[in-house]
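User: My collaborator sent over this chain with a note saying "see what the structure looks like." That's all I know about it. Can you take a look?
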Amino acid sequence: GDTGASGGGRRDAMTEPAAHALELRRVAESDFETVFSITMETMRAYVEATWGVWDDAEHRARIRASFDPSTHRLVHVDGQLAGLLAAEEHPEHVQLVKVFLLPPFQGRGIGTRLVRQVMAQAAAQGRPVRLRVLRVNPAQRLYLRLGFVITDETPERLYMQWRPGSDPRTA
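Assistant: Without extra context I'll predict from the sequence alone. Here is the result:
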């Protein structure tokens, strides 16, 4: 199924009053290098902090193997490429796979808007949202603030879930 803001056209637009124009654009196979570049720029430091090294070839192969254009959207803010969002629809839940924002777009509420959008779509279907996040990634604070709870953990990762009806208010 389509995980964008709306079905239909090539571009899914979402705007709020007094907010930056946030647009989710469908991804094609030809966008893989852009997806890889965003992933490397946003995740490399966390991977290095967790496992000690970023192996370009290994991560390129791993990202290529998990790359599904139907679940990925390029995030544009005021017309500029800002990051990547990926969500997968499963029968029992929605898996939030990637919320990667480039440094100039971090800390501006954009990630909150993107995650809330996925939460709203899941809630409309009566499904929880699940995700996993590296322990060293400060994004886990955003997820906790939005009402996600830790359901499992490993030395490297936290597994989190949000259920419709749980308190989505921010701190």
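A starting point for your reply to your collaborator: The chain has a mean pLDDT of 87.
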